[in-house]
Design goal:
Blueprint (H helix, E strand, L loop, with lengths): L12 E7 L1 H4 L7 H11 L3 E8 L3 H14 L2 E5 L10 H8 L4 E3 L1 H14 L5 H4 L3 E3 L3 E3 L8 E6 L2 E6 L3 H19 L5 E9 L3 H13 L5 E8 L2 E9 L3 H18 L4 E3 L5 H12 L3 E5 L5 H7 L8 E6 L3 H8 L3 H7 L4 H15 L3 E7 L14 E7 L4 E7 L4 H24 L1
Parallel strand pairs: 1-2, 1-3, 3-8, 13-14, 13-15
Antiparallel strand pairs: 4-5, 6-7, 7-8, 9-11, 9-12, 10-11, 15-16, 16-17
Helix pairs in contact: 2-7, 10-15
Length: about 425
């Protein structure tokens, strides 16, 4: 399809419905719909709306009616458990005018799970194998509740468990392949980069002439957050190889325009970017954390394989730990305070000595809501990045609540170490 015919192509819309009283009262945070939306977007399916409803028969029924009037695909999570408040399955059976039957394949799977766990199987567990006879059963290897695929008046309805681990398995192994098989989807290409050190408005001013010249089938999205701005370029429709070449050409132009602030030209987290830089340079790192309490080490170790480049961390929250383990002199702490340039410099040297890492970063600050002063208000952070020969330092003052100050400190420190490594090896 030529690009000038993109607008003539039918757009495929989806509605995501999450079910459960626990979502409405805030007891459980809905992460399912965000993840599902990402998966659908990558397939070229546009999410029109996301709806959360409680465990109320009439509300769920109305949500299904409303969703099917707007969208070609309706994805539902939640309400498939074995307890009385899980009403999604009987409701769907009634909605699609089916009859509940025992699915032998699902029953064998459920029995096998309980046998491996050496636990007795109750009648309510056996009922997990009951499904409406008008659905296509989607196998759930990660749990007892199967997914269900329905079709009505040209609309596809898919019901999945609310447990994220189970839902993701069904989406990847069953739902996405079936959607690709049953719906003609447009080609869609995404390219993402991350910038730091410049605000969204200033960034927009710099790239505005280029952005205005983009063809209709390529769109730019600004995704600001935590002191950084992610830019996503999306090409939609047409023949995939031609679209890829067109998007890549525009992406290369975008990278040159923002090269001064470019962190990575991949859709990845900052800690992954830092890890890649360390691996490429053959270096290991360590952290000495006071105000972040190990948060930076947590970000790093959440990445599989980070043991190849992360040596370890010292969480020196108390001053006596800074003194005993990181060799920060008592007199330095008395004269300068824990939140100071001399202290974070010594913290870097101390953690390098303790871990044997090649490079390290250190942070010390006042995260709030108390503990600040006129000289060092809440949000004041000193951070340092360096090796045995050189240490760079920086003072930053954040203005948010405690958790956000911690998160921002972590990201700024990771980027500071990334820049230190690149500057030392260029």
């Amino acid at each position: 399809m030529p690009f000038n015919d993109v607008n003539k192509m039918e757009k495929i819309f989806a509605t995501i419905i999450t079910i459960g009283d626990e979502l409405l009262i805030g007891q459980v945070v809905d992460t399912n719909s965000a993840w599902i939306a990402q998966q659908l977007t990558e397939q070229g399916i546009q999410v029109r709306e996301r709806i959360s409803v409680g465990d109320v028969w009439g509300d769920i029924w109305e949500a299904l009616d409303a969703a099917s009037a707007k969208s070609r695909v309706v994805l539902i999570t939640g309400g498939l458990g074995p307890t009385a408040d899980d009403i999604t399955k009987p409701l769907l059976c009634a909605y699609f005018e089916g009859t509940m039957v025992l699915h032998e394949g699902v029953l064998r799977h459920v029995e096998d799970i309980f046998k491996k766990l050496n636990r007795p199987m109750l009648d309510r567990n056996k009922k997990q194998a009951e499904v409406p006879d008008v659905c296509r059963v989607l196998f759930n290897p990660r749990g007892t509740a199967p997914g269900m695929w329905f079709e009505k008046n040209g609309v596809i309805f898919v019901s999945m468990p609310g447990v994220p681990f189970e839902m993701k398995g069904i989406m990847k192994n069953e739902v996405l392949p079936l959607l690709q098989k049953n719906i003609e989807l447009p080609a869609i290409i995404h390219r993402t980069l991350l910038t730091a050190g410049i605000g969204e408005s200033f960034l927009a001013e710099i790239i505005q002439p280029w952005e205005s010249s983009l063809p209709a089938y390529i769109k730019l999205a600004y995704l600001p957050g935590y002191g950084m701005v992610r830019l996503r370029l999306t090409g939609y429709g047409g023949e995939k190889e031609s679209l890829t070449r067109a998007v890549d050409a525009e992406f290369n132009t975008l990278k040159s325009l923002v090269s001064q602030w470019l962190v990575t030209d991949r859709d990845e987290k900052l800690e992954m970017t830092l890890g890649r830089v360390l691996k490429e340079k053959g270096l290991t790192m360590a952290t000495a954390e006071s105000c972040t309490g190990g948060y930076i080490a947590h970000l790093i170790t959440s990445i599989p394989g980070s043991s190849a480049w992360f040596a370890g961390s010292v969480v020196s929250y108390a001053n006596n730990v800074k003194t005993r383990i990181l060799d920060v002199p008592d007199q330095m702490l008395r004269e300068n305070g824990a939140v100071s340039e001399p202290v974070v410099r010594q913290m870097v040297l101390g953690v390098l000595k303790q871990t044997g890492a090649d490079v390290a970063l250190a942070v010390s600050g006042i995260m709030g809501p108390e503990g600040g002063s006129d000289e060092k208000p809440v949000g004041t952070v000193w951070m340092a990045a360096g090796n045995g020969n050189r240490i760079d330092t920086k003072e930053i003052r954040f203005r948010f609540d405690r958790m956000r100050n911690i998160e921002l400190t972590g990201l700024y420190a990771l980027n500071m170490l990334r820049m230190f490594i690149l500057n030392q090896t260029q």
